[in-house]
Amino acid sequence: MSATADEQVHHYGYHDDKDALIKRLHRIEGQVRGIERMIADDRYCIDILTQVGAVSTALESLAFRILDQHVQHCVAGALASGDEKAAKAKTQELLEAVHRFAKAS
């Protein structure tokens, strides 16, 4: 089914970067599988922890990238819309996401 001029397709802020994000996730997935192999092969603890740290850093970087795109697209769009209720909701949502993210770090 093709979209007509009247239909609007909604995209989130990360949409234009989706392929790169998926590629990054596949690399992270490969790192996690590597950690699994390291454990199965009885590798040295510090080597495993180093790889766990690398995965954590990679996930954090991905999260920051998505958060940045959320601010640039979703939050900015709500603020620019002139809809005070939508702007307040997106601002609250952003603050909650930042708090969750800060707790995880």
Name the descriptors.
single chain, mainly alpha, Methane Monooxygenase Hydroxylase, Chain G, domain 1, disordered N terminus
What does this molecule look like?
The structure is a single chain. By secondary structure, this protein is mainly α. The chain has one domain (27-104): Methane Monooxygenase Hydroxylase, Chain G, domain 1, CATH 1.20.58. Helix content is 76%, strand content 0%. It is built from three helices and no strands. The chain has helices at 18-40, 45-80, 84-104. The longest helix is centred in the middle third of the chain and has 36 residues, at 45-80. It is elongated and about 60 Å long. It starts with 17 loop residues before the first helix and ends with a helix.
The CATH H-level homologous superfamily: Metal-sensitive repressor, helix protomer
Structural class: mainly alpha
Characterize the biggest β-sheet. Answer: none
Low-confidence stretches: 1-6
Count of spatially separate domains:
1
Q: What is the number of strand segments?
A: 0
> Can you tell me the CATH topology?
Methane Monooxygenase Hydroxylase, Chain G, domain 1
Query: What order do the SSEs take from the amino end to the carboxyl end, as H and E?
Result: HHH
**Tally of individual helices:** 3
Mean pLDDT: 89
Helical content (DSSP H or I, runs of 4+): over 70%
- Ends apart, CA distance between termini: 43 Å
- Work out the strand percent: under 5%
Estimated radius of gyration = 19 Å
Q: How does CATH name the architecture?
A: Up-down Bundle
Q: What would CATH call the class? A: Mainly Alpha
Shape: elongated
